[in-house]
Fold this sequence. Notes:
This protein is of the alpha/beta class. It has helices at about 10-25, 35-45, 60-70, 85-95, 105-120, 145-155, 170-180, 200-210, 225-230, 245-255, 280-285, 295-300, 315-330, 340-350, 355-370, 375-385, 395-410, 415-425, 425-435, and strands spanning about 5-10, 30, 50-55, 75-80, 100, 160-165, 190-195, 210, 220-225, 235, 260, 270, 275-280, 300-305, 335-340, 375.
Amino acid sequence: MIAHVLLVDDDADMLQLLSMRLTAAGYRVTAVESAEAALAQLAIERPQLVLSDVRLPGRDGLALFDEIRARSPALPVILLTAHGTIPDAVEATARGVFTYLTKPFDGKALLDKIAEALALNATGRAEAPGSEAWREPIVSRSARMEEVLTEAKMVAKSDASVLIRGESGSGKELLAQAIHQASARAKRPFVAVNCGAIPEALLESELFGHMKGAFTGALANHQGLFQQANGGTVFLDEIGDMPPALQVKLLRVLQERSVRPLGASQPVPIDVRILSATHRDLEAAMGEGQFREDLYYRLNVVTLSLPTLAERREDIPLLANHFLAKLAAKYGKKLNGIAPDALRLLATAPWPGNVRQLYNVIEQVCALATTPLISLVLVQRALRVPSVEVLTFAEARLRFERDYLVGLLKLTDGNVADAARLADKNRTEFYRLLQKHGLTPGRFRGDVVPGNGDPSTPLVAD
Ligand SMILES: Nc1ncnc2c1ncn2[C@@H]1O[C@H](COP(=O)(O)OP(=O)(O)OP(=O)(O)O)[C@@H](O)[C@H]1O
Ligand SMILES: [Mg+2]
């Protein structure tokens, strides 16, 4: 899809120059000479980006931005400022303008900023071609995911066992469901079992069922999950956590295509497709004798590996906006976008917990949001990005020392002799330390409550 850029500048030469540059770079351009004309154009057609001069006759670029923010909060706006009007620009970015460029600017810098803004602001419109029902729940537009989904679609048609790998929260279960949906078994049950979450003693009966009286407490016949899934798909999640004794039994079920419920005299034929997932290194588990090799090859006819979220950062804005829309509906809140700087932070965060963590962060900001536009501060809070600077080693040591001394003084009620003994320091050295940190032992004596009542907070200005 060719991105459409709306250009706003009252200088006709500048407008022409920019139009030529952007058209040459492959964008579709609409050029207008005032904020009013831009707003009229926006009412007709929504571009993917607005590039506007700050100084305009009538309404200026910032006023235009405010108007756009009110109508289409997610539409990125880049402002061009004349040399010497930087304070405006700083204020603009604080207000949520994507970025600003100072004239005269470098053509490449401009194109880079535009590409960056467009990438961050990807919406469902940029969705991968050929979206189909089976993969609809999987939001993505990255090439890495596209590869996985293409493979998934191919194997879905067969009955091959598929092992899905990927870090925690990367979407393994979602992919398993999609494979089931894309398979001929779609109308039959999809049964997911978390092998790591069910106590070993119960797992066999859960999977394969039991007969009344098979063990104490077996009061009735119980149909196992394999039988419940008959004709459909069984998803064995966290297969790496399956106890060795059960691995043998599972292997037999897969080989014989039948299950024998506990206490049953006859096996029951079953027809299920097996998908399994793990975030563990099964090869290492095999090497250590924790996972059976024969079972491994049975389950792993095809491997699909999900990339981590950090390996497909282009999906982050798409996922974030998708989750925001979903959660806004869930909480009945009017939320209509994420500020550009906040989106940029999301797109560059480390995401060890992958898509699940992103979902949780968006859920937090939804819960805390008091304005329709999600701000950078909210995202920072949810990501727990410390707002203070990172401490140097020396600073960290100072802080530790002070907290340690405060702890000792609290413990000893401000008795320096006792505190020094506990610290294994002589009194002179201990006094020196207290002095260094501006701590007065008297403040810890008796029921004197220092400072704001919590002596662990700094007693003196640092
Ligand atoms: N591409 C995606 N599009 C939309 N939602 C996704 C996507 N990937 C994952 N999710 C959502 O993220 C959450 C985690 O996904 P899922 O449970 O499939 O991960 P998992 O790999 O099985 O994680 P775990 O290893 O922790 O079990 C779910 O809420 C899921 O719906
Ligand atoms: Mg899972």
